[in-house]
Recover the amino acids of this structure.
């Protein structure tokens, strides 16, 4: 028999509203701020304006959830709040400033997977907030509706991020859409008049303007990176939605995200 327990925002534990997020969460947040601040000072001394700008963006993004909480009158769980800050730290300070995207080939893939999971959680919470604010004496929507909306929210954020990457690459000379070395090309562009498929297999030598790139393959400029980013975002969002659905179906026996998606309203 399926339980009917719904995942809701905690409105009744008023004692939690005034409590801090917890010593462990605060310690992590302060430590991350100190690391970014130290990196900022070092970059400023070295005259590295790009790293200075990145550190300032990190500090802003660290505190953006607090601004959103104050505006929407709710408080994220300590687990979700710290996870967001760790994600920003791993993405921007480790990934960009410390070149983890280059040092660790799957760093970008890992972060996009986590991104899909995180934004699915945030989408779920935002919809629950709207539902609670417009509550009319009955359940505003079924949990399956919330899960679908969380999935769509996460995928939309993933697509918008890819738009941001192509904008930076096109207008600011960046390389956010990472290149991929491929050994096979299937294209109808080469024989457009006949619309015949031209296939190049086992590519191991490519030249650009007479210069041999010595890449042992063809250089794809961003498409594979974009599609793989969207795919792993899909994996992360789907994983959140699957476990959320299982929790809804089996609750209270199957409790996974209670500490993640429960948030307190601020009165």
């Amino acid at each position: 028999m399926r339980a009917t327990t719904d995942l809701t925002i905690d409105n009744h534990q008023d004692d939690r509203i005034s409590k801090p997020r917890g010593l462990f969460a605060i310690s992590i947040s302060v430590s991350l701020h100190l690391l970014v601040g130290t990196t900022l000072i070092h970059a400023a001394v070295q005259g590295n304006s790009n790293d200075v700008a990145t550190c300032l963006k990190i500090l802003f993004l660290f505190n953006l959830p607090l601004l959103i909480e104050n505006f929407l009158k709710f408080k994220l769980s300590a687990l979700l709040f710290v996870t967001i800050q760790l994600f920003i730290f791993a993405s921007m300070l480790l990934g960009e400033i410390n070149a983890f995207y280059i040092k660790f080939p799957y760093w970008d893939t890992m972060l996009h997977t986590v991104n899909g999971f995180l934004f699915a959680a945030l989408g779920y919470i935002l919809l629950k907030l709207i539902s609670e604010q417009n509550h009319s004496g009955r359940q505003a929507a079924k949990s399956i509706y919330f899960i679908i909306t969380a999935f769509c929210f996460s995928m939309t954020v993933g697509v918008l991020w890819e738009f941001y990457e192509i904008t930076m690459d096109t207008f600011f000379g960046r390389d956010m859409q990472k290149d991929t070395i491929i050994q096979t090309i299937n294209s109808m562009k080469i024989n457009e008049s006949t619309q015949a498929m031209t296939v190049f297999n086992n590519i191991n030598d490519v030249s650009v303007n007479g210069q041999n790139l010595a890449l042992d393959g063809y250089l794809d400029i961003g498409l594979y990176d974009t599609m793989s980013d969207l795919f792993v975002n899909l994996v992360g969002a789907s994983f959140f939605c699957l476990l959320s659905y299982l929790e809804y179906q089996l609750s209270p026996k199957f409790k996974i995200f209670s500490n993640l998606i429960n948030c307190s309203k601020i009165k």
Q: What stands out?
A: Residues 143-172 form the longest helix (30 residues). Strands lie at 74-75, 180-182, 185-187, 198-200, 207-208, 211-212, 218-220, 264-265. The radius of gyration is 23 Å. The chain has nine helices and eight strands.
